[in-house]
Amino acid sequence: MERPEWNVMVATCPSRTSLARIANKWTAMIVMALDPGRLRFGEIREAVGGISGKVLSETLRQLERDGVVSRTAYDQMPPRVEYELTPLGRSLHQPMAALAAWAQDHIEEVQLSRNAFDEREDERLVG
Amino acid sequence: MERPEWNVMVATCPSRTSLARIANKWTAMIVMALDPGRLRFGEIREAVGGISGKVLSETLRQLERDGVVSRTAYDQMPPRVEYELTPLGRSLHQPMAALAAWAQDHIEEVQLSRNAFDEREDERLVG
DNA sequence: CAGGATCCATTTTGATACTG
DNA sequence: CAGTATCAAAATGGATCCTG
User: Span of the secretion signal (chains A, B) (predicted)?
Assistant: First the structure.
């Protein structure tokens, strides 16, 4: 049961491709949106503020390919398609939620830092 | 001590900008590289496989702006610049490491899923 | 050595229109 | 409704040259 001795820090490690996909804001938000349960395409779109239909369908497709979400299309008119986290996808939720929580919990500190940095930058340019 | 009632799922929430930065493979790897202790620019570059000088300097600059890393430049020739995680940055390490660990731990499952998906795709195109 | 500047190729994202 | 196709715009990434 040996794992390869390399890791994501190695450019050619296969897991780098997986990290590249999950270390992405859209992926993070879609996984969080689907955590409570299966949703229709349009419902995900409402849940993830600001995402375009194109980006959503493309990202969902990649996540389906990676086995993170499953897709169920009902043969109806108009169409009805539902997405759900797979067991693999559910195992991803906790890390993703932790990342989002960090962003929310530290946004004030980050903003203060940005303001200070930009001020230093300004007076450096002015001299 | 009330937090705003919105969150990263809301497009206009400030924390969205923070999530966008940390939900990024380069950020993840740089934070992990710096976890053991301060490193010089070139050392980070070696630690993070495949990163270019341009991307590294740009990303470090953003992370410095956000207060995640601190930068120390020694007035020498040739230059010597060291980077270190701030306390804020150290608080980010755990979530980042969890994400990287997920990528590594599940890469085989992901790859199997990708292969199966691509095969289904192929036979769908062939018919 | 640590970067900034520049030029380009690639990728990502977004609007819009269209269809089963 | 859930996409796909298309075009344009913007962001990202890489390679190279240059400097203190």
Answer: none
Q: Which nucleotides of D are covered by protein (CB under 7 A)?
A: 1-6, 13-17, 20
Q: Cβ of B18 and A106 within 8 Å?
A: yes
Interatomic CA distance for residues B120 and B19, integer angstroms: 34
Per residue in B28-53, pLDDT (tens digit) is: 999 999 999 999 999 999 999 999 99
- CATH number for A15-126 (one of 1.10.10.10, 3.40.50.720, 3.90.470.20, 3.40.30.10): it is 1.10.10.10
Which residues 50-89 of A are in CB contact (within 8 Å) with B? 50, 64-67, 88
What are the structural domain ranges in chain A? 15-126
pTM for the predicted model, two decimal places: 0.94
For residue A70, report the phi and psi dihedrals to the nearest 5 degrees.
-115, 150
